[in-house]
Write a structure and sequence with these properties.
Length: about 220
């Protein structure tokens, strides 16, 4: 029995250490040489998954959101921001990066993984919208329930569901999320949503007001 207890203890210890590595991995990514104020292509650091963007990828005006799919504020801002980005699609590029605040949003990391898994099949923005639109449906689900829910979204999008289920727990997807979180830490984004326009953090009264956000974009375009 003593030997059995030690075996069980060892297995549990390894499991706990593995989880610690997964959730603290962003601290091990050195992004000091990364220019976070530009559209980033895939690299080994990011799990070979590049930034997800809308608008003009060649624009020098870059609006970045560090967002959490379980964050109510991110959900309420989502359709507004995308609508304004559409107005300015020739003049700016909009980038979404993951910042799941797992300490207060227990399903946020899984949701980011679902979005990145969908991205591997070319449907990041479609999954992005579904996650925000249905946030209240999955936010309080158990770990098994949420995966089934996200898989149903993947099925609705016509994705290969088996591949999606594999990708959602893959090292590549986990690395991308850790990379985004490391960039968020670098720019001082500690709440969601955080919006950065050409390297400057926007105050809530700017990104939360359509007219003020347009004014900020117009000023950035004119410079």
């Amino acid at each position: 029995m003593d030997k059995l207890r030690w075996i069980v203890f060892a297995v549990l210890t390894v499991g706990v250490l593995a989880l610690l590595v997964i959730f603290s991995g962003d601290d091990n990514i050195d992004v000091s040489s990364v220019d976070e104020n530009k559209l980033l292509t895939g690299s080994e650091q990011s799990g070979n998954i590049g930034d997800h963007s809308l608008g003009n990828p060649d624009s020098s005006v870059i609006l970045v959101e560090y967002g959490d799919f379980q964050c109510p504020g991110c959900r309420s801002a989502d359709s507004r921001i995308k609508s304004i980005v559409t107005e300015y699609e020739e003049d700016i590029v909009f980038i979404f990066r993951n910042l799941p605040l797992s300490s207060i949003h227990p399903n946020a990391l899984a949701a980011s993984s679902a979005a990145e898994a969908a991205a591997l099949q070319g449907q990041f923005w479609q999954m992005n919208s579904l996650l925000f639109e249905n946030q209240t449906s999955w936010a309080n689900q158990s770990s098994s329930e949420r995966i089934d829910t996200f898989a149903s979204y993947a099925d609705n999008l016509g994705l290969d569901v088996d591949e999606f289920r594999n990708d959602i727990v893959s090292d590549e997807v986990a690395q991308k999320i850790r990379f985004d979180m490391a960039l968020a830490s670098k720019v001082g984004a500690d709440s969601t949503p955080t919006f950065i326009l050409n390297g400057d953090k926007l105050e809530q009264d700017v990104w939360g007001d359509d007219d003020k956000l347009r004014e900020a974009l117009d000023e950035a375009i004119a410079q």
